[in-house]
Amino acid sequence: MSKPTIAVIRGDGIGSEVIDASLQILDAVFFNAEYTVADAGYDCFQQQGTPLPDETLEIAKRSDAILFGAITTPPNAKNYPSVIIQLRKSLGLYANLRPSRTYPYIGRFSDEDVDVLVVRENTEGLYVQEGKREGQQAYNILRRTEMACRRIVQFACQQAEQRQRKLAIAHKANVVKPADELWIEIAGEVVQNFDLDVSFEIVDALCTKLIMNPSAFDVIVAPNFYGDILSDLMAGIVGSLGLCASANIGQSHALFEPVHGSAPDIAGQGIANPLATILSAALMLDYLGEPAKANAIESAVVKLLQGPIKTPELGGTASTAMVTQALIDLL
Ligand code: NAI
Ligand code: MG
After folding, report:
1. What is the distance between the alpha carbons of residues 249 and 154, in angstroms, rounded to a whole number?
2. Of all protein residues, whose CA lies closest to atom 11 belonging to ligand 1?
3. Cβ-based burial of 182 (10 A; exposed 0-12, middle 13-18, buried ≥19)
């Protein structure tokens, strides 16, 4: 069998630090792949005049999977489109899977068995960045299509079937009309075809429920914007953004990245938690048909977090390199 090809996009800030750690872990589980490093992000923009060179997109398109660190999107830079949004669009990565689980001794819910998968619609809604500034007002277009709603809810139902068969559908159809009315109408149709315990949850109230009782939830499917917020909320519930992995899946491409960004406040200090990206690499192994290697990494992470070797945001004093080495020793 030929080696899988992986496009590696380090990006900005802590992106390269956590990617380097993840590549070491992939080596430690003897994952034999052909890696191609490609540029993207704000540093790339400053050097090459574009944050996403055509060559990077080509490499991403011809690879079996993409491992992505994080990029900086400066809020004030004009003509600077978000790289990750462009990649999701160009590669048709319509499903963003964001699992969060609790680990012993980490976060406020460490003694509860929280294991939630947020399935976020990744291609439309407010994140298409269509809108206008007109004099003293600005507006964004919020568009949902039946096709995209159907596709993502179907995907979430399939995920729920493999888990605890529980699906919460996040919406704000009481106010965001008609877009969210369409969303719940289509979701309601799709779930008929599955044998699941389904609930429709108004997204703000859902936030309260998640904080009060996160272990009551299994799979949550949400439009783009709500999914982004809900998954960061889950990161807080399980104790750190530095633990949250994600997969962006499409018909013929897949990209794996931590939920967190480039963290300029800690970049260059060697203290970024690499585990979110390492767990994203584990999701990639699963996708590429290597579940045993993926499980080995996940079990090693659980074991590691029970010990003292942790990065500062989890209350430890270890560096990125120390955490990576300790994980390699466990593997
Ligand atoms: P962020 O996720 O980079 O950081 C938020 C907070 O969490 C910071 O205090 C940071 O130090 C901490 N943090 C994040 N990851 C960590 C890790 N692995 N270990 C330890 N602590 C960690 O979000 P922020 O500050 O809102 O955004 C910074 C930049 O990243 C912005 O330019 C933003 O646009 C970009 N961003 C990029 C994303 C991507 O590439 N997919 C996603 C989110 C933000
Ligand atoms: Mg986010």
Report:
1. 13
2. 263
3. middle
Structure tokens at 269: 């200090």
Strands 131-134 and 137-140: antiparallel
pTM of the model: 0.94
Calpha distance 303→299 (Å, rounded): 6
Distance 331 CA to ligand 1 centre (A): 28
Measured between its terminal Cα atoms, the distance across the chain in Å is 25
Count of C-beta atoms within a 10 Å radius of residue 90? 14
Residue 288 to residue 296: CA distance in whole angstroms: 15
Q: Could you tell me the CATH number of the domain that includes residue 261?
A: 3.40.718.10
Residue 162 is classified by DSSP as: T
Q: Are 152 and 190 in contact (CB under 8 A)?
A: no
Domain that residue 268 falls in: 1-93+240-331
Query: Could you say which of 187, 213, 238 is where a domain stops?
Result: 238
Confidence of residue 240 (pLDDT cuts 50, 70, 90): confident
Tokens of 182: 């369409």
Q: How far apart are CA 138 and CA 258, in angstroms?
A: 31
pLDDT tens, residue by residue, 268-309: 999 999 999 999 999 999 999 999 999 999 999 999 999 999
Q: Would you say residue 99 lies in a domain?
A: no
> Which strand (E) or helix (H) includes residue 150?
helix 146-161
Helix, strand, coil shares, percent, the chain, to 5 = 45, 20, 35
Q: Is 132 exposed, middle or buried (0-12, 13-18, 19+ CB in 10 A)?
A: exposed
Q: What would the pLDDT profile of 84-142 be if each residue is shown by its tens digit?
A: 888 998 999 999 999 999 998 888 888 889 999 999 999 999 988 889 999 999 999 99
Given 203, 219, 238, the domain boundary residue is 238
Output the residue whose Cα is nearest ligand 1's atom 43.
261
For ligand 1, atom 16, name the residue with the nearest CA. Answer: 242
318 Cβ inside 6 Å of ligand 1: no
